[in-house]
Amino acid sequence: MKTIIFKDTIEDIKKAGEIIAGGGIVAFPTETVYGLGANALDEEAVKKIYLAKGRPSDNPMIVHISQVSDVYDIADISKREMSAQALENFNRCADAFWPGPLTMVLPKKEIVPLTTTGGLDTVAIRMPSHKTAKMLIEYSGCPIAAPSANLSGKPSPTTAEHTLDDMDGRIDAIIFGSDCQVGIESTVVDMRNDEPVILRPGRITAEELSNAIGGKVLIHPSLKIRDMSQKNADVSQKNEGMSQKNSDISQKDEDMSQKNADLSQKNIDMSQNMVARSPGMKYKHYAPEAEMQIFISDTNDRAKALEMAEIEVNRLKAMGQKAIIISFRDELEAAHNLFRRLRDADKAGYDVILAVGVSDDENGGVGFAVMNRMLKSAGYNVKKV
User: Fold this and answer.
1) Which residues, in sequence order, are bridge partners of residue 107?
2) Which residues pair with 197 in a beta bridge?
3) 181-238 pLDDT, tens per residue?
4) Which of 109, 149, 249, 385 suits a disulfide with 36, CB 3.0-4.6 Å?
5) How many CB atoms sit inside 10 A of residue 327's CB?
């Protein structure tokens, strides 16, 4: 298949819309990451997305709409399916955050194929703010199912070039538009009950959601799986880089490393076994080809974490490995650039990526979202200092 490259012009966006209307798949920019879109109501078209990405079929997709009224065509928003409080919460969040990087999980209507929802009776819906994405939905004449436009498991693409690297020859077309401003995927919230539940953290924070509805917002227990990564860090050698200066690894080191690996696998296994109502809840996500380690401090002392990462990178270089440190000045800069930095490191051929963690308040803020992506990228391989 030859992948067509479209410009970010009205004429080309119309052509891309015609491809989607005809059952094809097109990658396009959004404010979060690049999406890979098909007609959400066309089961055969959606299957092409799974095939192009190598995506597990039980991993639900987000359906993108161009106006709030489109929700009622694909979601059963009624007193029969949702309480008065849940309906009020939905309306308040739609008013506050749409268009924007918020996805809401709602009861689905029969018109939405189970292929689109990963076999679930719910549908995840978002109204993007990116003008190209909104125009594409309008010109296609249908809601667009669109996961991130990357090979399954790899870091999400935030530029057209990243998208082309993964999807060239696999899809019908790519719209070369502006780079994505947010840089991580949307916040996903289950809106079916009186208290909304965050299923995937993102740029819209728990505090912002709570303020919008005037009530409590919960965080799904699966997101607390990162607490187990602290156990990984606890059984890791705190001063591994210093203790291995002589390149001699003791049996004790090996045993503790194995415990660390076992706990990491337990984290991954737990996420595999859950019912995922949102993308990003299951499977290894966002992972670079290089091995990745995360350095964090109990007290959010980034300088200390960076110091230990520098010791480790020097040790790795002395052993002949190509290693790089990635760090960020704050949570917003990390959200914007994390996936770009991971992809750039892979392209440069690094063997190991040492990432310095960002502040994580555990209350659903931007730092919480960034650490969620970092931990999944690294397979919960954490070094606590």
Assistant:
1) 122
2) 190, 218
3) 999 999 999 999 999 999 999 999 999 999 999 999 999 988 875 554 455 544 444 4
4) 149
5) 17
Structural tokens at position 247: 């390149």
Q: Within this chain, do residues 240 and 203 fall inside the same structural domain, yes or no?
A: no
Last residue of a domain, one of 178, 203, 219: 219
Task: Report the C-alpha gap between 45 and 241 in whole angstroms.
Answer: 50
Based on the structure, what is the number of domains in the chain?
A: 2
State percent of the chain over pLDDT 90: 77
Domain that holds residue 269: 223-384
Asked if 153 and 237 sit in the same domain, the reply is no
Domain boundary (184, 219, 254) is at 219
> What are the pLDDT digits (tens) for 278-323?
776 665 678 999 999 999 987 778 899 999 999 999 999 999 999 9
Among the listed residues 383, 359, 377, the one whose alpha carbon sits nearest the alpha carbon of residue 301: 359
Q: What are phi and psi of 85, to 5 degrees?
A: -65, -40
For residues 385 and 383, give the distance between their C-alpha atoms in angstroms, rounded to a whole number. Answer: 7
- Asked whether 128 and 28 are in contact (CB, 8 A), the reply is no
Of 137, 136, 293, 102, give the one whose Cα is nearest residue 213.
102
Looking at the fold, whether 187 and 155 belong to one and the same domain comes out as yes
